[in-house]
Design the sequence.
């Protein structure tokens, strides 16, 4: 049994590799090659169990997640991957942030303007760095605004990322409204239970990734945003069951379930949106499988 730490996960699977792996996994999902049981939820969302089985290879992944939003880190997880008589156990927290960043990279590459240079990230927690890394991997971003409730945390994150990307300007702020006035891309990575902004505060053309809200009671986006936007989700069934924003907009009659475009099929038949685009992800098991399979492959080659 191979056991991998967070650092070993990062060294084995850089962001560009993760994006390619997750993109391929969503194509496999669209082709019907995954079995994805519903996410199991215990303790009112304090413990989650996710799994995925890839039929063509006979490989599977199981992830156990413990969530405590009042602690740092808020997410603690373990991933187990099995296949071909081998078993891999890896730090699940790093895989979670990496695969969440990677799917945002896939969606941004699909939906955002090719010449996008301005990114705003709302949220300065554990998910934020990989949101930045993913978008920078697929778009020529030169300016990043990091928006959080704590000026100190936003500043610390800006300093860390500036050391990693010296050619990009990072601006920390606590002013959400100012930070969303003129970006090409926005990433929302918070645990908010109420919308972070009003739809009218956004530019008329902008791509938005929303990955923070993963419970029906959580919301990062206002319901009115969905009325005149192209909305892509990781999986329709998961979004309708777990995404507070999607559930709220559908219940309000502002979004039809038929209007939700799944990411996998969209990779082969891209939408041609005009104006605002939204990618809403709650996270599904094939993403974890993609990173774990990439890990297993990297360790086999080494």
Sequence:
């Amino acid at each position: 049994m191979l056991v991998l730490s967070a650092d070993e996960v990062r060294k084995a699977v850089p962001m560009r590799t993760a994006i390619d792996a997750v993109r391929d996994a969503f194509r496999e999902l669209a082709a019907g090659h995954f079995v994805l049981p519903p996410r199991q939820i215990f303790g009112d969302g304090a413990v989650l169990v996710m799994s995925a089985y890839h039929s063509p290879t006979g490989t599977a992944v199981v992830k156990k997640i413990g969530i405590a939003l009042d602690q740092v880190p808020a997410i603690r997880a373990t991933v187990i991957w099995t296949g071909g008589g081998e078993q891999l156990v890896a730090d699940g927290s790093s895989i979670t942030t990496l695969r969440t960043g990677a799917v945002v990279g896939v969606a941004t590459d699909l939906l955002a303007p090719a010449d996008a240079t301005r990114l705003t990230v709302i949220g300065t927690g554990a998910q934020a760095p990989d949101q930045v890394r993913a978008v920078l991997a697929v778009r020529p971003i030169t300016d990043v605004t990091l928006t959080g409730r704590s000026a100190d945390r936003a500043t610390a994150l800006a300093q860390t990322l500036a050391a990693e990307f010296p050619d990009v300007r990072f601006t920390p702020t606590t002013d959400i409204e100012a930070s969303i006035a003129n970006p090409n891309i926005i990433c929302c990575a918070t645990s908010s239970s109420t919308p972070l902004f009003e739809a009218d505060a956004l530019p008329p053309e902008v791509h938005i990734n929303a990955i923070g809200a993963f419970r029906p009671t959580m919301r990062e986006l206002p319901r009115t945003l969905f009325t005149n936007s192209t909305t892509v989700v990781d999986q329709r069934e998961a979004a309708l069951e777990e995404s507070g924003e999607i559930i709220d907009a559908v219940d309000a009659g502002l979004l039809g379930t038929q209007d939700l475009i799944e990411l996998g099929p969209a990779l082969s038949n891209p939408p041609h949106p005009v104006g605002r685009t939204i990618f809403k992800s709650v996270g599904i098991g094939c993403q974890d499988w993609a990173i774990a399979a990439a890990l297993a492959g990297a360790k086999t080659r080494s």
Notes: The longest helix spans residues 92-111.
